[in-house]
Amino acid sequence: MLNPVKVGILGLGTVGGGTVHVLQKNAAEIARRAGRGIVVTHACAKELNKTYDYDIKDIILTKDLSEVVCNPEVDIVVELLGGTTIAKDITLEAIANGKHVVTANKALIAKYGNEIFAAAQEKGVMVTFEAAVAGGIPIIKAIREGLTANQIEWAAGIINGTSNFILTEMRDKGSEFSTVLAEAQRLGYAERDPTFDIEGVDAAHKLTIIASIAFGIPLQFDKVYMEGITRISPEDVQYADELGYRIKHLGITKRTDKGIELRVHPTFVAHKQLIANVEGVMNAVLMQSDALGQSLYYGAGAGALPTGSAIIADLVDVARTLTTDSDNRVPHLAFQANALSNLPIIPIEEVETAYYLRMPAIDKSGVLAHVANILSENDISIEAIIQKQPPNNEEYVSIVMLTHKVVEKQMNQAIKAIENLDGIIDKVTRIRLETLV
Asked: What is the pTM of this model?
């Protein structure tokens, strides 16, 4: 058997620790798969005298990142720093030193992947990032290698466990968003500042990567439409259930005649769809491709061991190719670098979907007729309407509608006109609806 591959890890936090733990626990099985051992020999950590739950006696610890990425003994650098500033600089330094890089950093890849992959290709090294999307689910390998024969039509993913947990709890307990968010923070599912999760930024990073390897386009994070879940109310969750739907915070990317859709937002999904039944902090990605049809990839989207599993899968891939010609490796973004497409990203105003609309209206005759007239003037047809008696003798009622598909800019015009009606007393709640077929 060949000499072991030596790994340097940048960051021994939750994921770094999980990676070392799994590498040590399954060392023999991993070596059988890789054809050689994979051992962590160097690591950069904030605390050098900390007690670890795994064996560190053969690991040289340092606080200096460059000591790891510049060490001639290190074959592969595992970047687990988070953020983008230091992570980008140290990743490029590692590449410049001829190191292969494995990263779990979705923001780094989404924002700077084009530059990083170009540098890696010039240097003849690999940069792998399975753990950057959907934790332990091998979605990158599935798209990049398993679906090579297919033309992918669309992908829709629950790719942020925090948002999915919040929406699941709101449905199961009828709780307000703020109450469930506090519970998610208490349980450690949400950060003290949860903005990246609940506003869709984290999901947008991951969707950027999925779209790039699915359609062979450059990474374009700045063109993703993002909408969070903070305005979802228990009332919306209840109406969704009555209409046969569930609300999921989806990342959606589609290939259309106009270009590529890239959007993250709350979405009505029919409850019979498998992805509608993904609960709690779990992740799932639903793919539609021409040869295979639909396929669903489900599993843990975060955590020390699931994410460590994905990192080690990348380490094994790199170990297998260390002695091969760099021109014959699997391309970073699935397609050959000189064959990436310049398909345009479609702005959200040009996207066509169906809609759920909820509008608080004064309980008097004629309001619904005015709303229906505005929708008709904008070529928007109605699929279903719910209007219940006012609660507790109040003077307003919620008018709820499902519409057929319409271009977003037409819906924007209609909503603006509806909100100007005398009988409408507050903003219209609008949630997009996807059939996913």
From this structure: 0.95
